[in-house]
Specification:
With about 200 residues, this protein is α/β, with parallel strands linked by helices. It contains eight helices and 13 strands.
């Protein structure tokens, strides 16, 4: 939340990728509601998307936050989302295979999802370009970054907050982001996990 408080301007555009039920989207939505900004909240899981929409409605932020039941990857295609649990608010699901952060699981439900790249989505003439992006997708981070090469190097993108499992990344995710002109400025480790929230800001 420090990232949103300090860096997001009321006129900025925020992409919340892996929005779950909307905690980050709602906070960002309250910030940009004071200006002309916009939040795009992306959550493909059928268990979470209705609650995301309802939370936006309850907080009267639908003019500011637009929810999309989309998944992001390297390119546009049809795919499957494997749910570890069907409890609302749960995470650690698997895109394309029943695996999350390198760990296989027994899927409790399999749903079809539409996958596209951030580059393709943001190039639509009706879509605003992101100034800030949050990515929390439990293992698909590198594929998402591979599908946003144009966005990454665009100077309009000012920051990325991303959850990274170091065992999976091996530093590759960090190198991809830094090579695009952003600098790692903050790290927060999850308790008892080799997983980190990392903030990258345009130099």
């Amino acid at each position: 939340m420090h990232w949103l408080r300090v860096l997001v301007d009321p006129n900025d555009v925020v992409y919340d990728i892996g929005a779950n039920v909307g905690a980050y989207s709602l906070y960002a939505g309250n910030i940009v509601s004071g200006g002309n900004g916009q939040v795009f909240a992306f959550e493909p899981a059928f268990t979470n998307f209705p609650s995301l929409c309802r939370n936006i409605e309850i907080n009267r932020l639908n003019k500011t936050i637009i929810p999309y039941p989309l998944a992001f990857g390297e390119a546009t295609n049809e795919g499957k989302l494997f749910l570890r649990s069907t409890v609302t608010g749960d995470a650690m699901h698997g895109l394309l295979q029943p695996e999350s952060e390198g760990n296989a699981f027994d899927s409790k439900f399999t749903q079809g999802v539409y996958i596209t790249s951030i580059d393709e989505f943001s190039s639509n003439s009706d879509i605003l370009f992101p100034n800030h992006i949050k990515i929390d997708v439990d293992g698909s981070e590198q594929k998402i970054l591979s599908g946003m090469k144009s966005v990454l190097i665009d100077k309009r993108l000012q920051s990325i907050m991303i959850e990274i499992n170091s065992d999976i990344s091996g530093g590759e995710i960090e190198r991809t982001i830094v090579s695009s002109g952003l600098k790692e400025v903050m790290v927060e480790q999850w308790p008892s996990r080799n997983t980190f929230n990392k903030l990258f800001v345009r130099s």
